[in-house]
Amino acid sequence: MSLFDVNTQRRTEPVDGVRITPAKEYRAEIAEKLLEAITPFEGNEYADEDAEKLRGGILPKHDRWLPACYGKAANILDYADKDTTVVFFEYNACMEAVDGFASRLKEDIKTLSEEGYPFLNAPYCFDEERIVSKLSSPIVFETLPRSLNDLKLDELAEIKLFPTAVSNTASLQEDVLNYLDGKYKVFIVAANEEHAKELKKEFGNDENLDISTGDLPWGFICPEQKTAVFSFGQKKQLKKPPKSRFKRGEAIKNFSDINVGDYVVHVNYGIGVYDGIHKVESGGIINDYIRLKFAGTDVLYFPCSQLDQISKYTVGDSGVKVKLNKLGGNDWQRTKAKVKHSVKDLAKELIALYDVRRKIKGHAFSPDDQIGNITAPHCLRGFCFSAGAGEIGGGDQLTLIGQHQTICFTDGIMELIQQGFPVAA
């Protein structure tokens, strides 16, 4: 038995035991509320099935009745007091994620309702407006200056990132002392307790210096607040994780290229949401499987060895709502057929275009007297060659020049694309 890192999807360290709290409890007051909520749907097969379970002392596992379980909806911000600071990294992106989740949930509810599943006339998640109403003086980090329509800014400060974490104590000491001399408040975030103890011993006591443990990829400085933060750790922390810039449909080469919640496209089933790697027992053998969520309650498991079956899907416009496909439906097949038909139409148009261009008469140059040098000036895609241009190398360059000459000696339109052809000046 081991701990599990949700980011890397790998085991970390072995443990002797874990404490598991109940996922759900049967409480009489909750059962009464659920029965009251289910009663208006009497006659619906799904509602009647859940009501029968309740009478037998079993709570339905379906989230369809979740709004009826509690008198008041709450989220994590309801547990924060006035001294709690909420920090956003890319606020607009966070709100877009909230909006995207709410839209997907709404679409799932619509799909399941059409199949006959009952739902309550109540909110099933917090939307952007309800979350913002719970915020009190949050801190927002943005890569670029931008407007934040939902929030009133009390103060604007520039933050400068240090490019890497610091792993050399001598270098760290020099930088820290410089900032302390400048009356800065300096924070050092060490990778573990051992590093923290070494640093405290090295720097001694200073009222403007705070050393603690944590996990920061790099440090930063805020001149307006006279604050500097250093990240001190192992060399493996030095490299800044590369920013992924996926194109629509780009292949996923390994599991570090994808995160839980990302939109993906399965070659056979269409657009879904990546839901991580899960262990599945089949025939007495436990294997790791990739799980994808599709529209409604549809879920697909397939072996990790088939990672090449999915590609990452990104939307150019962040405001676009992505519609998930449904397993067993015809939408994805129709989409593939439509794209295939469009590609064929484009190919026909290109063939017709080049057939017309092939029939257009151009200017045919006269052959050169020498093979190695071009005596007559020939303008080839913006490159002008002449006898006075100097020497032109042999091998591939002569072959390429020969191809150019062959084309120039005909009266057809030039369609040759050339890249990286060096000419001695």
Task: Tell me the layout of helices and strands.
Blueprint: E1 2-5, E2 10-14, H1 28-38, H2 45-55, H3 66-69, E3 87-89, H4 91-114, H5 128-132, E4 139-141, E5 160-161, H6 169-181, E6 185-190, H7 193-203, E7 209-213, E8 220-222, E9 227-232, E10 250-251, E11 263-266, E12 270-282, E13 285-293, E14 299-303, E15 310-312, H8 331-359, E16 378-380, E17 383-385, H9 396-408
Parallel strand pairs: 3-4, 6-7, 6-9
Antiparallel strand pairs: 1-2, 5-8, 8-9, 10-15, 11-12, 11-15, 12-13, 13-14, 16-17
Briefly summarize what is shown.
This protein is of the alpha+beta class. About 30% of the residues lie in helices and about 20% in strands. Mean pLDDT is about 75; it is low at about 235-250, about 370-390 and about 420-425.
Which features characterize this protein?
9 helices, alpha+beta, 425 residues, five-stranded mixed β-sheet, six-stranded antiparallel β-sheet, disordered C terminus
Give a written overview of the molecule.
It is a single chain. This protein is α+β, with helices and mostly antiparallel strands. It contains 9 helices and 17 strands. The strands form 5 sheets. The chain has a 6-stranded antiparallel beta sheet, with helices on one face. The longest helix has 29 residues, at 331-359. It is extended. 11% of the residues are buried. Residues 234-248, 369-392 and 418-425 have low confidence and may be disordered.
